[in-house]
Amino acid sequence: MSQASFAPRVQPPYYAVIFTSQRRMGEADSPGYAEAAERMAALADGQPGYLGAESARDAQGLGLTVSYWRSLEDIRAWRQHAEHAATRDHGRSHWYRHYELRIAKVERSYGWDEADGVADPGGCAAAEPTIAAFSAGRD
Amino acid sequence: MSQASFAPRVQPPYYAVIFTSQRRMGEADSPGYAEAAERMAALADGQPGYLGAESARDAQGLGLTVSYWRSLEDIRAWRQHAEHAATRDHGRSHWYRHYELRIAKVERSYGWDEADGVADPGGCAAAEPTIAAFSAGRD
Question: C-alpha angle B120/A22/B84, rounded to 5°?
Fold first, then answer.
């Protein structure tokens, strides 16, 4: 399958910015949101240390966006980017009801694809490593 | 507003499990998914060290679920929970096309609510602390 919606696998450690937000609902309540989100994604993509992002929003307007960065310094620089700062201000006054933001250091990661197959339930579960064997970016 | 969809604020450090997944689409392709997701959420809620979770899935079947835990040991114990393990096996064979899982240590966090108001764009941006001043669970 296409993995365009997944951030590339990167060797830990790196950083995640977990942004959980509740949007005001109705397009009339959120003018310019889609365009701004697209613009911010393109702008982030050009920033030093940007590793990718994953995002989903449900029909009730609750969304999670996790962006990945090489270092805290890269996150700080993106935070201080003037157009990003202006868009955040606009978001608080126009788009959001509530948000939570967490900065976290990714220590372990792994993935699975249907092409990997499904482990024998009674077998060695090769597709499901134990936590002790978490691969750090296995490909 | 109700914050039922947000995990409670907790003083860092703590851990986040970031689970990004692409579901097979169509209810016929995902029998039992909704019930199992509800059951896993209830089961996690009773686990030692569980701090909460946030989740969203879009209309294309891409979803992010971030669960929060006190320690890596708590994550390991949940991972080894027999019913959880069986549900993961079932998920790979029935519900998912692809997933990525990352374990990350939350180092900083803050939030904003519309009740906090919007900072004066030219002012001191009290609602938007600088990265150096990230509060560690400000309430």
Answer: 140
